[in-house]
Amino acid sequence: MPLAEILFWVSFAVLFYVYAGYPFLLVAIAMFVPRRRPKADFTPRLSILIAAYNEQTGIRRKIEQTLALDYPSDLIEILVLSDGSTDQTDAIVESFRDPRVRLLQVSGRKGKTNAQNEGVKVARGDVLIFSDATTIYHPQALRYLASNYADPKVGAVSGRYQYFDPAGWSPMGLGTIAFWNYENFTKVMQSRIRTISGCCGCIYSVRREAYTPLAPDVISDLVQPLHVIRQGYRVVFEERALAYEETTQSTSEEFSMRVRVVTRGIWGLLSLPELLIPWKSGWVSFQLWSHKVLRWLVPFFLFMLLTSNLFLWGQPFYRLILLGQVIFYVITVLSLLVPIQRLWKPLGIPLYFCTLNAAAFCSVIEVLRGKKYVVWETVRT
Questions:
Q1: Which domain holds residue 44?
Q2: Bigger pLDDT: 248 or 284?
Q3: At 204, is the pLDDT very low, low, confident or very high (cuts 50, 70, 90)?
């Protein structure tokens, strides 16, 4: 076979495996594993840690909504971890007279992961729940998360993202919702078989004795579960524990966020290289390669697919595939210039797909350059 044809089919096979083959394989394996769903009647003491930086517009609502969740009131505490906020965030938190609400001012602004490390030091709960200041939980989310800890083999539990586009105009709206529905399905299958290897950042929990302090430049919702797994625990996905989050409202906002997240994820995975060795880490290694590493490399295989396809233009079959790729990328460019997704929402999916992979490409380059992300910027005003 000509070199171009070999490269075409290699890149096509990898892309098919990442987006379809791996999920289908999970489904096939999960068919032979009984489904486990614990009753929501186990109620350990919880510490809810909310990382915040300049969140004056939403922190009051977040605290009030958390206090109203369905869980024994004497078994929860809320710790707002203010990472060097310069607005009214701290004052708003301190205005609460409820003894369950506490403010921890983290000086020096060293990022979310560092703030969580500091929060754990003063937390009193047996289970630590990590949340963002903008996320709204399902009324029974805490009960669903906590119920899994009745099993002593469970060291961490992730909830489920449920994204929504309030105005319906975001170019990222339908793409974000579709992508996270796909992600949630994958996590359900992983958890059913054995364990997931990464949690949802705005709603995940860790058994206190299983928590490991992390370096500030790694992403905690990926690396913390991996440390939990290294200790011999399972990490469970609890699909009933919903966290509602708005989609980003611009392509640039989504791109910047994804670059930061993926870059921190790559650095985090590099900090645990033994988990990438199949004969040492088995199922976890298989998940990380299939669901993380190969996905971060997707933009390189997309480029290989397109480039090799150009050299195969003379054959009708390859010409048809190339035409499909061109149409896909033309829709992406049009979506950047004109909000065509308002005419038909699925037209926004190519833009979201390309935004994710452009961010992954930039993240790999950032890691090769030694760039690290520690702090985050609040977009809300």
A1: 1-381
A2: 284
A3: very high
